[in-house]
Amino acid sequence: MLQSDQAMEQNRTRARVFSIIILGILLILGGRLVHLQVIDAQKYTGTAKAQSIRPTRVIPPRGVIYDRNNILMVDNEASFTLTITPRYFDTTQYNLLASLMEVETRVIREAYSKARAWSATRPSAAFREVPFDVFSRVQENMHRLKGVEFEDAWKRRYHTEAHAAHALGYIREINDRELERVREDGYQQGDLFGKSGIERTYESFLRGEMGVDFRQVDLRGRILKAELADQPDIPAENGYDLVLALDSKVQALAESLFVNKRGGAVAIDVNTGGLIAMVSMPDYDPEVFTQKLTPEVWSTLQGPSKPMLNRATLNFMPPGSTWKPFMALMGMQTGLVGPNETIMCRGGHPLGRGRNLTCMDVHGPQDAEEAIRNSCNTYFFELMYRAHLGQFKKYGTMFGFGVEAPTDIPEQSAGLIPDSAYFDNWQGKGKWGPGWTISMGIGQGNMSVTPLQLARYTAAIANEGTLHSPHLVAYLRDPQTGETIPSDVPLPEHVNIDPEYYPVVKAGMRRVMEESTGRLSQIPGIPSAGKTGTAQAGGINREDDSLFIMFAPFDDPQIAVAVQCENAGFGGSCAAPIASLMAEQYLKGEIPDSYEKTLRMNRALAASSQPLPTAKSD
């Protein structure tokens, strides 16, 4: 009996101990629960809510582009971009999404893999410019497509007849190398990015400021609330608008005149350096980059005609006789020849050892003005024979040749203006002489220039010594405030030529238009000055290249133009009429009707077969 009582007492003791332990545990849990629900309620409620809120980017419209007359050239239209958030995407739905998007399943797999490599938890642009019918089909199946959403986006829309493809440039999806460079500026995979032209140069201004919409989602990423009262959205800000120096009507005309031709043309404002037109042909329609590029289209863009090459700034070739005004200015400035000093032309220039460089006529005594008017090779051969290559390089650089121009055009070539070091490296020291260099006096041989450089130099002759920085953008405009910001154009440079020499050269160039090779390309009622050129093209059985420079009006220059036509023969046959009509459109605001325009072009073409008092390089 005693043992039984002891056992019962032990059991009661154990029960009390267990009860105390259980009570203690319950008190601890209850206290913790009170602490979480009362004391830390605000803290953890905020954390939980934050985990359920997804910030969604709002992409602003890209800046709009106008020409110098405020004619709309480029704006935007709304489009749809499909995004994938890998964390929520159900990979068993590859086939479903592929069927709705009308693409192969592998395309969806690749888009998913690319998105996951970027971020598992953030939406990544997978398909841009989704057609409305596709958008509608996907929307109807969104309940089956976790992690798939649509983002409002924008694509470029073009309005003028002018393509201006190489001036405007184009935008496409940012690549890995570009993304690495600008990631800190808020770019992410799938964003659009300026690839060329002013779309590239002014990318940071055109892009605008991203906005943010805050949405509440569940654990599967489905949107519960699109608007949150205590988390206000951040509005997007449109990109800056650009107002160009470009005249879209001059640009469109020049492009039409280059149909079935290859080459480049640049028209520049003599007094500001603003680019009135920049033409490269063959070109492409920038509209193609707002759509999916098919292999056939891409093959054409990369084809033998090189439509994506900016011939206006990258097409370097010898300048031919358009170089002769430069030689006259350099010769007079350095004392190689006086303004009224004559050089006898007997039909050529002796080179020694029985060799003779020919001039296509016997001009007799020639001063600078007559030599430019007659395009006398002998005169300019002699100037180059007297010159030192150091002088040639110095003054060439002074007029903007052999160097890249300070400009907002991202693609350009410096060309080549050789000096003695160049020939030493090429031929060997002491192994070259005048025979290697004298042809550069007439713009032939081992030298090359671009249409942009020729136009800039022509403008410097027209304004008598100011070398402006060529630029496409006149100013930027804030679409919210209307505030304007001038483009960041470097100050003009002064060309160190005595002012008394410019009128001599300009008079010779005027006589070219009135009496010589440019006479059939005069602008009716507007006196002008110009110089034709024919440059020997490389290769076998290739026609010479046709070149022309001009400025107008003669007494108050406003526009300077340079044109290169590849393999088009005589300078007055292709390049001159194109330049003349471009200048006329700019100065008069109109051109002759199509019949008169065709007649003038045909007359100029016929002139190439007429005997004129000019040399091979005209």
Write the layout of secondary structure elements.
Blueprint: H1 2-39, H2 41-52, E1 53-58, E2 65-66, E3 72-84, H3 94-101, H4 105-118, E4 124-127, H5 132-140, E5 148-158, H6 165-168, E6 171-173, H7 176-182, E7 192-194, H8 197-201, H9 203-206, E8 211-217, E9 223-225, E10 241-244, H10 248-257, E11 263-269, E12 275-281, H11 295-301, H12 311-314, H13 324-333, E13 343-345, E14 348-352, E15 355-358, E16 364-366, H14 368-374, H15 377-386, H16 389-398, H17 420-427, H18 434-437, H19 451-462, E17 466-467, E18 473-477, E19 484-486, E20 493-494, H20 502-515, E21 529-535, E22 545-552, E23 559-565, H21 575-588, H22 594-607
Parallel strand pairs: 2-10
Antiparallel strand pairs: 1-8, 2-3, 3-4, 3-5, 6-7, 8-9, 10-18, 11-12, 11-23, 13-16, 14-15, 17-20, 18-19, 21-22, 22-23
Helix pairs in contact: 3-4, 10-21, 14-20, 21-22
